[in-house]
# Entry
Amino acid sequence: MGVMYQQENGLFHLYNDNISYIMKILKNGHLGHLYFGKRLHLRDDYDYIIEEKWRSQTAYIENGNGEMISLAGMMQEFPVHGNTDFRQPAFAVRMENGSAITDAKFAGARIVDGKPELSGLPATYTEDPGEAQTLQIDLIDALTGLKVTLNYTVFEKYNAIARSVCLANEGKEALHITTAMSFSLDLPDSDYEWMQFSGAWARERYQYVRPLTPGIVSVGSRAGISSQEQNPFVILKRKDTNEEQGEAIGLSLIYSGNFLAQAEVDAQDVTRLMIGLHPDSFDWKLDCGETLQLPEAVAAYTKKGLNDLSSQYHHLYRQRLCRGPWRDKGRPILLNNWEATYFDITEEKLVKIASKAKECGVELFVLDDGWFGDRRDDHAGLGDWVPSPDVLPNGIGVLADKIHALGLMFGLWFEPEMVNADSDLFRAHPDWILQTPGREPSLGRHQLVLDFSRKEVVDCIYDMMAKVMEETKLDYIKWDMNRPLTEVYSAALPYDRQGEVFHRYVLGVYDLYDRLTKRFPDVLFESCASGGARFDAGLLYYAPQAWTSDDTDAMERLKIQYGTSYGYPVASMGAHVSAVPNHQLNRITSIDTRANVAMFGTFGYELDLNLLSDEEIERVKAQIEFMKANRELLQQGDFYRILSPFKGNETEWICVSADKKHAIAAWFRVLNVVNGPVKKIRFTGLDEDTLYTVSGIEGTFYGDELMEIGVPEIENMNAHGRINTCDYMSRLYEIHAVTM
Ligand code: DGJ
# Structure
């Protein structure tokens, strides 16, 4: 693993055992992209990759050596705006005279071991400088004095390149940065399919695939959050690539606000894939001497199919994006009271729910919305993070003590970025919200958005939260966020800095997370935004798990968790067993099927266990015991998708231990089938030559048999002699290597 930099011929080659990323300084001083893919030999000359062809109806510029050059068909690293390249640029800058043309020529490069931190932004990291190398390349626009530093990190263990961009105004006038993409990757052909993960509230991250054609395909968010509608993670795959084989490139942005991800195919079939802050809502004034660090993006590559591509992200994000003591620990099995009580809470009721949970083996009790201020429903109270004496007359400290005395950890819900008009905070500081002068602010769930671009606002929320965290000796926080940003304008910024507010807001969110996680390093954070509206790599840096969706129906969760798994690890997906009929869909599924889905996540319950039958309680106890025994495998093992809920009636996935000696697979069927064929349940990720047993099936099988043939579906007879299958079926298969 390392970076090869050949100064004499301007060649950069980042490599590990499996991938190569090659760049070269072009004749005109711009940084060209040559290759990203399977590891190649280290050579001094790949110039044959650079295509220079005279074409009519294009424009040429003198390259400084008397030669004419066009960037139109060139593969580039940080494409400029407004001269001979007519595709989407990686950056655009407005000068004081109104000119928006950019240029960026090579000015120097250095290599550092490990990976420098990104100030104020979440990013991947190394624990030992030997784990990665970082190449920093400076480009300069001589006219404006804008210095662009491209940071590329290649990791030893992950087949991924992390890139971020830092801009420094070393010129003599203020500049407005209007586009600044974190990653821009030119690929030599367009024979790809584009995969995106889109949805809406309660049906987040469904998978969509379409072929690339000339022109642009893009997804993005302008809602101030990464959003439920689109996700800052996309894949380009070859047409014949499937889960098991084939070439694919992923691009993921470590950021939680507005973003744009797009692929542009030009007339010569060159594909430009890029991701970064959404240019539509971004205009950053960079004064002389100022710098701007932009978010990091991670490009991963595989030739071994989509499961392998996902696995690069799962490992990198689980091990070197998530942080803190919870990173490597089994996540506590929780009970959250939201769907059990909604706002109807008393100390007595909560302790009763928590006691039953403890009896069943639950480890963490989470008190959701409604414990503070005047928050008796969702019209009031947000912003007043002071325990309510109406709900908890003995104080929240007493409740926390009672929960702790039961032997449970204690967690609380906060929605730090929001305020209700009916709150003491808003009455004291009506100007602390995002609001455009002269216009009514829109409401979302009856609430307004605090202006987190202002430090005094973040300070105030920090103080209130820290006080409650101290008083309750809090173990866990669910950090919610329940509306998009509108009328985005900050009363604290001048007119020519209003284009910065969206990004400054996200920086304020990161600042609050940063301060709280530093002061309370042992607290486990779970992010949430009306379910999964901010399920992104940015927040995983602070909160290693996220509430995947407000939809807790087991069948719906198959698609949501399957889609989410393309870019994010199982250990990041909050997943709970809830009551039936399900509160979002009225569907009734068995307690086992609900648990079998939730176990491929952080696992917990979101119902009042006191209301279950004795028989169901026995199932709950068995589920919790099973989860405790297998949590390490399920949360830290290698996850593979097998059957897709987007393609048919059945879904299957598996978690395999690193040594391939133990695996747990889950198979689900939405609708029952009468007189159907006896299906074979096949597995993935096992060792071909190892002999295994499979729970519920007699005999032993080699890994190759289990992966190529599979085991017959189990059909039992019930007491009436009828086949014991039904709609919404699920089965877990435990697979163990036979020890000789
Ligand atoms: C939205 C979340 O997604 C729910 O889980 C719950 O916490 C509610 N907010 C509470 O208002």
